[in-house]
Specification:
The protein is an all-alpha fold. Helix content is about 85%, strand content about 0%.
Length: about 180
């Protein structure tokens, strides 16, 4: 190809990948800060943060898809599970419940401030909305995260299996060629 150079220095490529990783991290942090600032200044409205949500969602889905289709998700899971106290699937559940809890708190506070006419009613609205939202959002988000985890793991396992089969068939073909070539 015209735009690809023939000589690639691994050290330079690794440094570039490290920089890209840092840039990605900064973009995610900036999106989260932007969401927080918009919620504080403009109120809790999901239309205000649509762009940020799309950036966060697209980047997460893209990363998950790429590592699954390259077959490295399985390796990442194995490395994580061997070095961490909690399995990655457990962390996905915890993360889903935590996100659900944050959403439930925001919705509970919003209901208490915007719809209650007295302090006891505000407390009642907060806890009612908080527990219903916690039940709905935590289970849905944790379920979706586990579904993505399972699908990515399954796809990554298939890619690795196909790579191993291709490698085995290449080795057998090479052995066959050497065997027939020596006759």
């Amino acid at each position: 190809m015209f735009w690809k150079s023939k000589h690639v220095d691994e050290r330079i490529k690794n440094q570039q990948n490290k920089i890209y990783k840092e840039i990605f991290f900064f973009v995610i942090v900036i999106c989260l800060i932007s969401i927080l600032i918009k919620f504080i200044t403009e109120g809790v409205s999901s239309e205000n943060v649509l762009t940020e949500r799309l950036i966060l969602l697209f980047s997460a889905v893209y990363y998950c898809g790429r590592v699954a289709y390259l077959g490295i998700f399985t390796d990442e899971v194995e490395i994580h599970d061997s070095t961490s106290k909690f399995k990655l699937s457990t962390k996905f559940i915890i993360f889903g419940v935590a996100i659900g809890m944050i959403i439930a708190i925001i919705m509970g506070v919003n209901s208490a401030f915007n719809y209650a006419e007295s302090t006891p009613q505000a407390i009642y609205f907060f806890f009612l909305v908080f527990f219903v939202s916690l039940l709905l959002y935590s289970s849905c988000i944790a379920g979706i995260l586990l579904l993505f985890y399972g699908l990515a793991k399954k796809k990554s396992d298939r890619v690795i299996q196909r790579m191993l089969e291709d490698e085995d068939s290449g080795d057998q073909c090479e052995k066959h060629t050497l065997k027939n070539g020596s006759n």
